[in-house]
Amino acid sequence: MITVIDGGVTAPKGFLAAGLRAGIKPGKTNKDMAMIYSEVPATVAGTFTRNKVTAAPVCWDKKLVETEETAQAVIVNTGIANAATGAQGLKNSELTAEEAGKVLRIPKEQVLVSSTGVIGFQLPMDVILEGVSKLAPALSDSRQAALDAATAILTTDTHKKEIAVQFTIDGVTCTMGGMSKGSGMIHPNMGTMLCFIMTDVDIDKTLLQKKLREVVDETYNMVSVDGDTSTNDTVLVLANGRSGAAKIDSEGEALDTFTEALMEVCTYLAKQTAQDGEGATRLFTAHVTGAPDRETARTLAKSIITSNLTKAAIFGKDANMGRLLCAMGYSGAEYDPSLVDVTMCSKAGSIKLVVGGTMPPFSEEEALKILEPEEITAEVELHQGDVEATAWGCDLTYDYVKINADYRS
What we know:
Layout: E1 3-5, E2 15-20, E3 33-48, H1 56-67, E4 70-77, H2 86-104, E5 111-115, H3 125-138, H4 143-152, E6 161-169, E7 172-181, E8 194-199, H5 205-218, E9 234-239, H6 253-275, E10 283-291, H7 294-306, H8 308-315, H9 321-329, E11 341-346, E12 349-354, H10 364-370, E13 375-381, E14 387-394, H11 398-405
Parallel strand pairs: 4-5, 8-9, 10-13
Antiparallel strand pairs: 1-6, 2-3, 3-4, 3-9, 6-7, 7-8, 10-14, 11-12, 11-13
Helix pairs in contact: 1-2, 2-3, 5-6, 7-9
C-alpha cells in the first residue's frame, strides 16, 4: 500500500536539501537556486527533452546518466535557462558541477545540473558559483529545507509542487519524495518541466531507468498546458539505498511496489503542473475508454486537452462539444466517430453531451453548473475495445497571453 505523507525531497533517508536567493536576476526577491544532496552515491536515472534545441544542463545530465552508475547531488537555478548558449553554456554547466563537487567533496561527475528561465542568455557565473558555495552549508534534512528547495525552483508557477510517499518492501519501510516546477511551455516529450525524485530504495540502474521511462510516458508525457515542448525538460531519480531494504534487481513484487510508488509521485506532480498552467483556472482531464489499442486512446486524450478551442470552452464553462469532437477528428487516430459518447463530469455532477457521435438536447443551466468547479473531466467512451488512457491539461485564459507577452520583463 502506498501512503502519502507530509514531505518532499528530504523525506527519504540520507537526502538533504537547501534553497536560497543567489540573485540571478537583479531586482527580484525570490529564491532562485536549490541543491539536493545524497549522503551516499545514489543510483541515477533520467528522461530528457527531445527538443532539438537542447539546453546545456540537459546535455550535461544526459551524458552523466548514460555513463555514470550513480550521482550524489543536483544543482538547480531559475531565471536563466542556459539554452541556445553554445559552447560557453556547456562550459558553464560543467563549471557549476565542478564548484558543487569542490564544496561537497565529490567528483563533478556526481553532480547533476538543471536550469530554467529565459532562453538565450548566459548564466552570471559569479552569482551561480557563489550560490553553490552558500547552498552547501545550508543543506539540511528538515521539512523546511525541502520546502525551500521546492520554492527555489519555481518560475511562473503560482505554488510549490512536492509530494512524499511511504511503502513497504520485504517488511522494510521505504520512502520516496519529489518536487517539480512547471507552468508554461508545457508539452513534454520523454521528459517534463523539471522534476527531481529521491528515494531510499536500493534498485538496479537498468530497472530504474526502464520503470522511469514507463511511468513518465503515462504521466508527464500525458500533460499539456500550451503545446510547447521545453528546451530544458528533465526528470531525475536518485535512489540511495539508505532504507536498508534488499536491493531490487529483478522483476517481482518488490519492483511492482516501487513502480506503484513512482507512479503515485509522478501522477500527482504531473496533475499539479497541469492545474497550475499559466493563467489557468481549471484542471481539465480527458479520460478515453473503450479504445482498440493504447496508441489510439493516448492520441485522442492528448488531442482533446491540447485543443485551444476546447481549452477556451472549458474556461468559458461552455458545453460546446463540437470543439471536443473536432479535436478528436483531426488527431490522426483511427476510430469510429459514430460510436462516441462523451460525459462531462465534476464534483457538481455529470451530464452526457454526446451520444453515438451526435449531440442531443441538454440543459444549458445544468451543464454550466457541472462546468463551474476547478476540476473538469471529459469521459470519452469509444465502444471499440477495452483500452483506456488519461491526459491532463488546463483551460486557456486571457492571463496566459498576458504572462507570456512580457515574460522577459
